[in-house]
Amino acid sequence: MHYNGASDCATFGRPRPAIHMTRIKICGITRVEDAHAAAYGGADAIGLVFHEKSPRYVTVQQAARLAQSLPPFVTVVGLFVDVSADYVHAVLEEVPLDLLQFHGQENPEFCSCFNRPYIKAIRVRTGVDLLQCASRYASAQGLLLDAWVEGVPGGTGATFDWALIPPNLPLPVILSGGLNPGNVADGIRAVRPYAVDVSSGVEAKKGIKDAAKVAAFITEVKNIDLQLSR
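User: That's the sequence. What structure does it adopt?
Assistant: Structure tokens below.
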């Protein structure tokens, strides 16, 4: 992601403006209290997982309750993995999703057919051409970059080599994969992403967030942003 700013603030060729606040998404929300911890703690978005194999899966009814419990100006993101268009439409009829997140083999035509903005998750490993991915999914609002783990579409808690991210990606980067309060500042310093996405790194156990970890994660993001803006 390119930003306009002083070149001495650049890492991996990404200049950063004097004031850039990294957006924060807390994914895999399953409880109202966790949604509130994220929203009132300063997160910009929450993620609701509609992938039945995930320990963070929520039903349409659960998701509707969670979305309705949120204060204004919090983006609600729905995460899908290789589902039918009918299923996505059925969810959208019941849940006020602001943004769609696709984690499977969905093609750009599928991703863009729901009259909602979307982001495409890419699992990063050596040999994955992120520039080609950005070109293919040019209609996306951004690329969410996650760790490659065989057979698992996401939420593994694994990190990847951030140096594999090219400096000239034409889409906003959402950095994911193994982030937690202890390493998110390093990730932001290295990648200078538009946003960060965390799930397992702020959990007490799978599907259950730890409010203290959520608060610590958000604080770390805000602190490193302030440091880098000086």
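The domain at 6-229 is CATH 3.20.20.70 (TIM Barrel).
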